[in-house]
Amino acid sequence: MGVEERETPAMEEIVSYSSDKNNSVSLEPNVYYVMKTIEKVNTPNDVAILFRPRSTLYRSGIALFTGNVSPGYIGELNFGIMNLRNESFVLEMGARVCHAMFYQVVGETAAYRGQWQGGRTTTDGKEKQV
């Protein structure tokens, strides 16, 4: 990741959510995954969202890497998740993994206009930073 350009690793989808199937994924020990939420946000220009993992994940030895949603962001969310245990951990698609905390932003803001708008997970090679 550079000042002017960025490139993210290639990714492969291993499982996806389906409302009519009970899908799950086995998170292998010490492997980092990127997960996309089934929820989509349409964040107003005066709201920011911060995320915290649910405590059941901590108790289970699972680390969830979250960020924030900038005012004006629209789309799905991507989080990192890693199994810190020495054995696999089964995560059911649709399970609740985090809490969303909404904060009102007071004053003038600039709406999100970055390249991740819409929930994109990775880049297609090198690209210019916005």
Tell me, rounded to a whole number, the average pLDDT. 88
Evaluate the radius of gyration.
16 Å
Uncertain residue segments: none
Instruction: Indicate the CATH class of the domain at 21-106.
Output: Mainly Beta
Q: Could you give the count of β-strands?
A: 10
Helical run tally = 1
Q: Percent of residues in beta strands?
A: 35-45%
Strand order of the largest sheet: 3-7-5
Biggest sheet: strands, sense, closure?
A: 3 strands, antiparallel
* Helix and strand composition category: mainly beta
**Alpha-carbon distance between the two ends:** 13 Å
CATH architecture classification name of the domain at 21-106? Distorted Sandwich
Specify the CATH homologous superfamily of the domain at 21-106: Deoxyuridine triphosphatase (dUTPase)
> Which fold name is given in CATH as the topology of the domain at 21-106?
Deoxyuridine 5'-Triphosphate Nucleotidohydrolase, Chain A
Net shape: globular
The portion of residues assigned to helices is: under 10%
N-to-C order of helices and strands: EEEEHEEEEEE
Task: List the topology elements.
Elements: E1 5-6, E2 24-27, E3 32-42, E4 47-53, H1 55-59, E5 62-65, E6 68-69, E7 74-83, E8 89-92, E9 98-104, E10 127-128
Can you offer a commentary on this structure?
By secondary structure, the protein is mostly beta strands. The chain has a domain of 86 residues: Distorted Sandwich (Deoxyuridine 5'-Triphosphate Nucleotidohydrolase, Chain A), CATH 2.70.40.10. The chain has one helix and ten strands. It has a three-stranded antiparallel β-sheet. A three-stranded antiparallel β-sheet has the order 6-4-9. Strands 1-10 form a two-stranded antiparallel sheet. The radius of gyration is 16 Å and the shape is globular.
